Queue: 3 jobs
Job 1
Amino acid sequence: MDISIIIPVYNSASTLRQCLLALNNSSFSDFEVLVVDDKSEDDSVSIARKFPCKVILLDENMGPAGARNEGVRQASGEILLFVDSDMVVHEDAVERIVNTFEKKPDVSCVSGIYSKKPLLSVGLTGWYRCLQTHYWKKSTVGYTTRFTISLGAIKRDVFEAVGGFDEEYKKADVEDYEIGHRLVEKGFKLFQDPLIQADHRDISSFPHLLSTVFRRGRMWMSLFFKRRRLDKGYVTPGRSFGLILSLVSLMALLGSVVFPSLIYTACFSIILFLISDGGFLWFLLREQGTLSFIPLVVIHYFTSLARAFGAVAGTFDYITSK
């Protein structure tokens, strides 16, 4: 089975060395590595050239979707494995991907998940994001509608059949959902295995986290209105209800300044919000202990609010575009 590992890179000097070292130490080694540099302004290219890989230099900044497409054009493998430059794959990850394709010939895409361990030293926000993405991705295991392209492989003929990544996405936002939807609509099967893992550097700044989830929530709504369905295992009805509850609680809390009785609505909504994603909060408590739990819940609440406001903005975008 010929495998091409494609790594889109933009100013990734802080993690690229670890990313490439991990691939070199993989238990499965029969693959080629293509590093697609998206006009980096740091030492990413010089770092990549110290490893046995093909370095592709783009003439302009295209964003990760465009960089991945260019990597595919220059790749030779029948299996295309996309790995982000801030990912350190576990030693058996590539081998497990290969084995899954061999054991499940009907599967067109195989994805992994983030581990519980952040790649770099991070603060409380970084730990929240690391554990949140691990838990949410782990809840999407099995057949899914989302192609996790930070650690995901696809058969070349399938990738070409759906036309590759949509290059309108200039940042790492919802292009994984978008291509996943096109794949499912054409009848291809996507499989996510929780044993395929990588350590990931995620967002450690609280303002950056809020702006990111707001933007992605806003962009995801256009995909939702197109399909009229939630994503299996990831954007669940319970989590969607939790976003609504976070908004209700905030509105009631603000309204209680004028109508004090609304404080009861705010409290009740917050309790329901906590219950709506209780499994994840229990996971946070087990992993981080009681001292960090309350601050992590606060981060979760405001992150949910940012995502909810993004969904509202996306809905407004959809309505006004008609």
Job 2
Amino acid sequence: MNRNTRWAMVAAFGAVYLFWGGTFLAIRYAVADLPPLLTIGLRCAGGAAVLFAWLALRGRLERASLAAWGTAAVAGALLFLACHAVMASVEQRVSSGETAVWMTAIPLWLVILDAVRARRRPALSVLLGLGLGAAGVLVLSAGDGMHPERATDHAALLACAFAWALGSLIGRHGARPVSAVQSTAMQLLTGAAFVLLGSALFEPWSGARLTVRSAGSMGFLIVCGTAIGLAAYTWLLRVTTPAAVGTFSFVNPVIALLLGWAVGDDHLGPRTVIATGLIVSAVLATQWKGLLGPRSAAPAAVTSPADLQMATPWIRLS
């Protein structure tokens, strides 16, 4: 691995860890003033516009096949309508840190779906991780401030995590363009169409108001959480192991909880800390073998200096 690639990977992991850890609080702030589906739809549309503009300016925009658009549409519907739009709706009632902890179910769903797809029994470490994850969910559900009437919100967040896992696998294994950035932009564009249509049909816009806080949150979500964060995530899936990329699942909730605590949106009670520890341990257990195993070689198509610049546009490579 050359020096440029190493620094690009460091920057990409940093973007996924920090920016995605902050998106939970940003969504929480945005949906206080804007309808949740409209928030996610604008986020996706803005992120797609930024990435497509970047590709066009670089002369790297390729013609995608109908099959690639089909993959993008299915993945975009799962990632942004079934996951992010529902999650944003739930965050009107659930704190940012709590939401982040529930979303650590994503890699647990990933290992289950991957085992079903490959028709093989999960490893013992995976089964241990699933047990720890279930224990963490039980502790979190019974924690301070967790009331029985919020069971529907908790179930919705688990379903969101499932939708993200399924959408990620479809986007990874389906037809797609060579460029990871364009693949991300296509998923964002199709996802925005679905979410904005849902918002127009089912969501009242009369109470929407753009404040300094919601505008700043939307700017962060579009540029940092979407354009940069998703491009980095998609590129990392191509150049390193899924287990290594999946480490975001146990870094993001820590960042989200700390940010929520810092602004008074979360209270770090003993049960929350215990539940977070159990769920983070569950994610670590399910990915332990992949984290220790040999890293697969990065595809040549995405490791040239030009592709590194496309994948990590916030770095200027020499």
Job 3
Amino acid sequence: MEPRSELLAHISLFESLTRDELDTLAKGLEEKTLAPGATVFKQGEEGGEMYIVLDGAVDIAVGEGQAAITVASLFPGQYFGELSLFDGMSRSATAVATKPTRLLWLGRDDLVRFVGSNPEGAMRILAEMSNRMRKTNDLMTSQVSRNVILEHEERLSLGDRIADKVASFGGSWAFISCFLGVLLLWLLANIFVPYDRPGFMLLNLILAVVAAGQAPVIMMSQNRQETKANLLAENDYRVNLKNEIGIGGLQRGQAELLQRLAMIEKKVDHMARAQGMTT
């Protein structure tokens, strides 16, 4: 088997093809060289080619600017952009070379010619696509979110837990009731107790100490609440992004399958007509 055919054999869509079919498909591969930072394609651009990394590295990112998220880093032997071979739709991500990179690319026209001349190979490709769609369905029905609040609370120290308890009690009606009760007892003691009484200056000092100690503890708890809110927001964003990517991939996979089925129906119909004419 030729080296380029071996590269195709490691791609899941083509791994079920025979050696001769791989050699035929590999004839359509062409080489492209990219400098570091060069863009292979951008998100939203019209697609139609699949790429295999020969040397170097390529990052796949979703989004633009500072909001861009790198979802994969590809190295020699890995491939990307294979969905565009079938649907020719716009790219769902941006691919950028991060090192001096050599790529092999296969165009959609080359695949169409291969399918037209190798219907059995096309059926094997369809079978592999169907398997990928099943795996995508399993992924979409499984739980992808995390209980970030529980994970955060498991990492809390004893001091953090005490601060949360103090902040929770300090903002409750129980604290207000206890505070008013202490003030009332202090006032009654200063008014009706005949012997030496605790003065109001001492009460003022105690209140100042309580307020000075309670304020930073409450701020510590509020900072943790803000951390929890940020964790929830980040987790929601990642879950939503994964769902969006998964749903988009599922839709593209369905479009690929329908398109391949239509092509096979046309091919079978053409062969049936040709056979009818010969008979």
